[in-house]
């Protein structure tokens, strides 16, 4: 009976996703419709969709696990993510939207090419290489998580779980395009928020209330209640806190998140959406950390802290809600995979085939090609996930931060510093990405596990600024930046 | 006479057992981003309302030049 209830919830959820795919299909007939939903999305969709994409299964399993393992020290992650989301919507979104509307851009490389008057297509090729390599690795890792989730909750078997997860995502992504991706992300974001708000409330109540929960945590380990955690006020503690705050930098310039701003209906949606996005990320993060802390008092001895959410959902909730929690884990995986697949497809078809190779194919043909590329990229991810290719999985270590460090520094420079040049931006992109990879492979372990976002981001920023200082910016681009600033107006 | 609001808040926070520095970190983590966002939304809404009233004033005057200026301002958020 219990399994039947859980299965019913999961099947119901998957059917809703398929329906969203069919519904979104009406607008995926051309490239603009397929990749940015015709730039017609309302505030509430882009707000929840960007947060659901920005947070993978890491939010549900990883952050609750951190609340469990390090307690109050995980508050630094809340600070990083809330500030990152707020700053992205306040400072980045409006000028980026203005620029991309002027250019009629539908991808981030589209924007960079036009912004820097790049006729060599260097941004398009470079973006394609970075995004494709990282997306394939990340997609494979998420499909692996999908296989394990289906197998552990429903006993489908790992291989079948991978197939089911990919099959559903590919259906609604190829049929429905970005519109289906954004609306399914919205649904997934709402589900994630609901569960992460409910989890700590039920957990704290089961622990006997907030005061008794804190007392129990203090009895287990007083460091769980200290902002600097077990490190105390040491270099390792400061580096750990700084690394946690740096997680938020990815929200300022990752292409899969910037696409949401491009797809907004108009500037008003961005002003309104920012408020919902900040409230949503606060609910996500505070709920996950306090949920993990409550779980620590209830289930104090776990070998793997990242299993605390599945354990709490199974032990504290009736079967129907356990099914909902499984759906939420799947939602977190799918909302990331769908966005990455469509991002990778967009750079191949729009940036490489249409713009760099100069294809004269019709919009309809290109849109069809985009769907084909989405399937091919998903199939590669499937093969990697099924064969569990270790070399590819090493890429997952820096897939998220690699994309963020390649794009965030140069996007910020391009929006706010008129001295940024094409050469500086290309060098910054390569520098940010390369330092991220090298840091993870060679230095991270020797520097208190400093999160690669910090060296990668600042390397990209410094290289971009230094190279820009010795080269000359395009006069037309400088005048355009002034014009964009004037149109967008002051922030406060 | 009741204690001031701030004192009562600190007392309530301490009574939960969570150390004050942890409460401060949580408040800053949530409050900084939320505060910035609220200030941003208020400023943008005030600008929008200001633009709306300036357009109405321009239309009232019936001046072509003023109307052009106002519609230009209206196009910005």
Outline the fold blueprint.
The complex is a heterodimer of chains A (492) and B (77).
Chain A lengths: L1 H23 L6 H6 L6 H12 L2 H14 L4 H29 L4 H8 L6 H33 L3 H49 L3 H11 L14 H12 L8 H8 L4 H32 L9 H9 L2 H38 L6 H25 L2 H27 L5 H22 L9 H17 L5 H14 L4
Helix pairs in contact in A: 1-8, 1-14, 3-8, 3-11, 3-12, 3-14, 4-12, 4-14, 5-10, 5-12, 5-19, 6-7, 7-8, 7-14, 7-15, 7-16, 7-17, 8-12, 8-13, 8-14, 8-15, 9-12, 13-14, 14-15, 16-17, 16-18, 17-18
Chain B lengths: L4 H11 L4 H42 L2 H11 L3
Give your account of this protein's structure.
The complex is a heterodimer of chains A (492) and B (77). Chain A is mainly α and 492 residues long. Helices cover 79% and strands 0% of the residues of chain A. Chain A is globular, with a radius of gyration of 22 Å. Chain A starts with a helix and ends with a helix. The model of chain A has no long low-confidence stretch (mean pLDDT 91). Chain B has 77 residues and is an all-alpha fold. Chain B is built from three helices and no strands. Chain B has helices at 5-15, 20-61, 64-74. In chain B, helix 2 runs antiparallel to helix 3. The N and C termini of chain B lie far apart (49 Å). The model of chain B is unreliable at 63-77 (pLDDT under 50).
The proportion of residues forming helix of chain B, as a percent range, comes to over 70%
**Estimated share of beta-strand residues of chain B:** under 5%
Bulk shape of chain B: elongated
Order of helices and strands of chain A: HHHHHHHHHHHHHHHHHHH
**Which structural class is indicated by helix and strand composition of chain B?**
mainly alpha
Return residue spans of chain A where pLDDT drops below 50 for at least 5 consecutive residues.
none
Provide the helix percentage of chain A. over 70%
How many beta-strand elements of chain B?
0
Q: Which segments of chain B are poorly predicted (pLDDT under 50) over 5 or more consecutive residues?
A: 63-77
What oligomeric state do these chains adopt? heterodimer
Shape of chain A: globular
Helix run count of chain B: 3
How many β-strand stretches of chain A? 0
Any idea what the radius of gyration of chain B is?
A: 23 Å
Main sheet: strands, sense, barrel of chain A: none
Averaged pLDDT of chain A: 91
**Helical stretch tally of chain A:** 19
**Most extensive protein-chain contact, per-chain counts:** A-B, 40 and 29 residues
Please outline the major beta sheet of chain B.
none
Rg of chain A (C-alpha, Å): 22 Å
